[in-house]
Amino acid sequence: MLIIGCDFHPRYQQIAMANDETGELLIERRLDHASGEAHAFYRNLECPVRVGIEATGPIHWFERLLAELGHELWIGDSAKIRASAVRKQKTDERDALLILDLLLAKRFPKIWVPTPAERDLRQLLWHRHKLVCMRTMLGNQLHALAMSQGLCRKKKLFTKKGRIELVRLGLAPWASRRREELLRLLEQLEPSITELDRAVMQEAKRRQDAVLLMTHPGIGPVTSLAFVLAIGPIARFPHSKKIVSYLGLNPSEDSSGGRRRLGAISKQGNTMVRWLLIEAVYPAVRLDPELRQDYQRLKFRRGHAVAKVAIARKLAVRMYWMLRTGADYAQLVRRQGSPGGTLMNASSSLA
Predict the structure, then answer these.
(1) Using N-to-C axis directions, what is the helix angle for 340-350 and 304-325, rounded to 10°?
(2) What distance in Å separates the CA atoms of residue 266 and residue 192, rounded to the nearest whole number?
(3) Under a CB-based contact definition with an 8 Å cutoff, are residues 5 and 74 in contact?
(4) Could you give the CA distance from residue 247 to residue 265 in angstroms, rounded to a whole number?
(5) If we measure between CA atoms, which residue out of 214, 196, 195, 218 comes closest to residue 205?
(6) Which of 98, 110, 291, 338 holds its CA 20 to 30 A away from the CA of 316?
(7) What CA–CA distance (Å, rounded) separates 253 from 266?
(8) pTM score of the predicted model
(9) What is the spatial distance between Cα 319 and Cα 316, in angstroms, rounded to a whole number?
(10) Nearest-CA neighbor of 74 among 164, 1, 182?
């Protein structure tokens, strides 16, 4: 088998190719994408090929090309690959050789990759998420215009009565134009978001794992579908601490010499899923007595921001164990007190 270490860029890629049996370096070259040089190179390879690259963004066409030709593509953890570099000099040639060396030494940090269908569903969720953020941004600007004229209605500003009050405000010419265009953009976004919400609901109902998560109070189709698409097979995570770290809800740490220093959450995971979990805190706290008690206690001691993050972490742990054990919400909290007893029993039975 031929082994190729590939340093991938949007316009070109630098490769280093060797034979798997001998380890002899065969080719080092740069392949251009726009001219079709990369396509021609891989199409002319007759032997089985394994290509290793760092995790990056615009590689969908490259994945399709290798799959069509029957070649194998391994995607590696960028941070772990970079940590394997010893020398300070960093060039495309060195990066390609580093990936090749890791492949030959059987130390390549291969990561899980979702299927093309799952990646497309992620695009649905990201598109909805961005439109919702745009809607929030437009609403905030309209709130600012209203408050500048002494009208403070909060969420009621977008009711029928609030809209009438907003339109009747006496504004200067450019401020009036800004109000009209913001309202027009807001009206254009609403149908799209509603349509995307229906699509998310349909996709969530088709997946048993998402339906299972929706039995938890406060977890809707968007949060449940995003969670299962982000984490992939639940068996990848041996315990709940791994899922918390994967989502960036674990505290950052700088400990040394017997002294432990913990900081804010790492925020190294999926931004959208972490945001959705934090947004799900308020409905979950309102509907779940135990979470409400924990939230009130933490809010009194540390403030509402810390309390929200802590409850989001609890939700992530609960959702992890629901998927791990196949238990719905009623089974998860069937015992009195903290669900820790149920979760501990579930974990011990799996061990």
Answers:
(1) 40
(2) 33
(3) no
(4) 10
(5) 214
(6) 110
(7) 9
(8) 0.85
(9) 5
(10) 1
